[in-house]
Design a protein that fits this description.
The chain starts with a strand and ends with a helix. Strands 1, 2, 6, 7, 8, 9, 15 and 16 form an eight-stranded mixed sheet that branches. Strands 3-5-4-11-12-13-10-14 form an eight-stranded mixed sheet. The chain has ten helices and 16 strands. The chain has helices spanning 11-22, 47-53, 90-104, 147-151, 174-180, 224-235, 278-298, 303-312, 314-333, 344-354; strands spanning 2-7, 27-30, 44-46, 63-72, 75-87, 107-109, 114-120, 123-128, 131-140, 162-171, 189-194, 197-206, 209-217, 243-248, 256-257, 260-262. Helix 1 runs parallel beside helix 3 and helix 7 (278-298) packs antiparallel against helix 8. It has a single domain, classed as FAD/NAD(P)-binding domain (3-Layer(bba) Sandwich). With 355 residues, the chain is α/β, with parallel strands linked by helices.
Length: 355
C-alpha cells in the first residue's frame, strides 16, 4: 500500500512524484513508455517551470530562446520579446525529471500501461499489464484522455474542446538551420497562422535539429497530416520522426475526487492560446503534492480534503478558462472547412500581445 500512486511520468507526473517523495510520502510512479521517449510537443519551457524543477535541468537544454516571431499566411505579423524561453527535446527533458523523481525516493515502473483504476472506500486499485497496485491516493498525470480521470467521470476524452497536434523533429545541417531564420539574430520561436485553417504551426530551433509542428481544433483537423507535410515542404524541411497528440484547451470543471487528483493535461492545465502545458502542469503538480501531504497528515483522502487542490488552483484555472472560452467561441463561430474571418488577423495580433 503506497501513499501516492502517480499515473504518467511526463513533466507534471514526475514533478508530482518528486515533490511527494521530498515531502516524505511513499510514491509509486507508472508509465506506459520506457524512458527516454519522445512526445508530440514543441518543448518550450518558461522560467517559472525551470525554477520549480531546478536549474540543473538546463544541463539538457537545446537553446535559450529570446522571443516569438508571429506570421500570418507566411508574412511577418508581430514580434513578442521574451527573455525566458528554454527549448528542450522532450526525450531529454522528461528523462531528466524522471531521474530527479527517482533520486528523491519515488519508485518508477516503466512499460506499465494502466487499463483500470478503481476507487474503493479505503484505497485506490490500479491495474497495469496484469499487475495490481494499491495506494491511498492516485494522481492522474496521464494526458488528455486520462484513464484516471475517466474512472471518476472527469475527463476530456469524450469532449470536443481539444487541439489535434502533430510534430516532427528533423536533423538539419547548419546552413539549413540558418536558412530557416530561427537562429537569427538570436534563437527564437516562429509561430504561423493561416487564413484557411483555425489552427497554428510552429518552428523551434534545437541543437542540430528543428522542432516543427502543426495544431488545429479537433473539428477543423481533417487532413491535418497532409496539411502538415505541406507546411514542412514550404519550409524546405523533410518529415522525420512524425508523431501526434491531443491537447485540451479548456480545464475540467473539477480536478479532484475521492482519492483522486488530476494534474497536467489530465486536468486541463494547458495554456489555450499556445497549446503549451509543461509550465502549467508543473505548477499544478507543485500544489497537488502539498495537498497529498495534507491528506496523509489528516488521514482523509475524501473529496472534503482533496478539494483543497481545486481551491489552491482557483486563480490558475480561471486564467486558463478565460482564454479557453475565447478559443471555444471561435470554434463555435467558424464552421469546419471555412476560411477564418478577416478580423482573425487582428485577433492574432492582440492575442500575441496578451500571451
Amino acid at each position: 500500500m503506497h501513499d501516492v500512486l502517480v499515473v504518467g511520468a511526463g513533466p507534471a507526473g514526475s514533478h508530482a512524484a518528486r515533490r511527494c517523495a521530498e515531502l516524505g510520502l511513499d510514491v509509486l510512479m507508472l508509465d506506459a513508455a520506457t524512458f527516454p521517449r519522445d512526445k508530440a510537443c514543441g518543448g518550450v519551457v518558461g522560467e517559472e517551470a525551470v525554477r520549480l524543477v531546478g536549474r540543473d535541468v538546463l544541463s539538457v537544454v537545446e537553446r535559450e530562446g529570446r522571443g516569438n516571431e508571429i506570421f500570418f499566411d507566411w508574412r511577418p505579423l508581430a514580434w513578442i520579446p521574451s527573455p525566458h524561453m528554454y527549448f528542450f527535446k522532450r526525450r531529454k527533458f522528461d528523462h531528466c525529471l524522471v531521474k530527479k523523481a527517482v533520486a528523491a525516493g519515488a519508485v518508477l515502473l516503466e512499460g506499465r500501461r494502466v487499463t483500470r483504476v478503481a476507487v474503493e472506500p479505503d484505497r485506490v486499485v490500479v491495474e497495469a499489464n496484469g499487475e495490481r497496485h494499491e495506494a491511498r491516493l492516485v494522481i492522474g498525470a496521464d494526458g488528455t484522455n486520462s484513464v484516471v480521470g475517466r474512472a471518476v467521470g472527469l475527463s476530456h476524452h469524450d469532449g470536443t474542446w481539444k487541439f489535434a497536434s502533430i510534430k516532427a523533429e528533423v536533423d538539419l545541417p547548419p546552413d539549413r538551420m540558418e536558412a530557416l531564420g530561427v537562429e537569427n539574430p538570436m534563437p527564437h520561436q516562429r509561430t504561423y497562422f493561416f487564413s484557411d485553417l483555425l489552427g497554428f504551426a510552429w518552428v523551434i530551433p534545437n541543437e542540430g535539429s528543428v522542432n516543427a509542428g502543426f495544431g488545429a481544433m479537433m473539428r477543423h483537423a481533417a487532413g491535418l497530416r497532409q496539411r502538415f507535410y505541406g507546411f514542412l515542404a514550404g519550409l524546405g524541411v523533410p518529415p522525420q520522426d512524425v508523431r501526434g497528440a491531443q491537447i485540451p484547451y479548456l480545464p475540467l470543471p473539477r480536478v479532484y475526487g475521492d482519492r483522486v487528483l488530476l494534474t497536467g493535461d489530465a486536468g486541463g492545465f494547458v495554456n489555450p492560446w499556445t497549446g503549451c502545458g509543461i509550465d502549467d502542469g508543473i505548477r499544478a503538480s507543485e500544489r497537488a503534492a502539498r495537498v497529498a501531504r495534507l491528506a496523509v497528515d489528516r488521514g482523509d483522502f475524501t473529496a472534503s480534503t482533496l478539494r483543497e487542490f481545486q481551491r489552491a488552483s482557483r486563480d490558475h484555472l480561471r486564467w486558463i478558462d478565460r482564454r479557453g472560452r475565447w478559443m471555444k467561441a471561435l470554434d463555435l463561430l467558424i464552421p469546419p472547412g471555412s476560411k477564418v474571418p478577416s478580423f482573425f488577423r487582428h485577433l492574432v495580433r492582440v492575442g500575441a500581445a496578451w500571451a
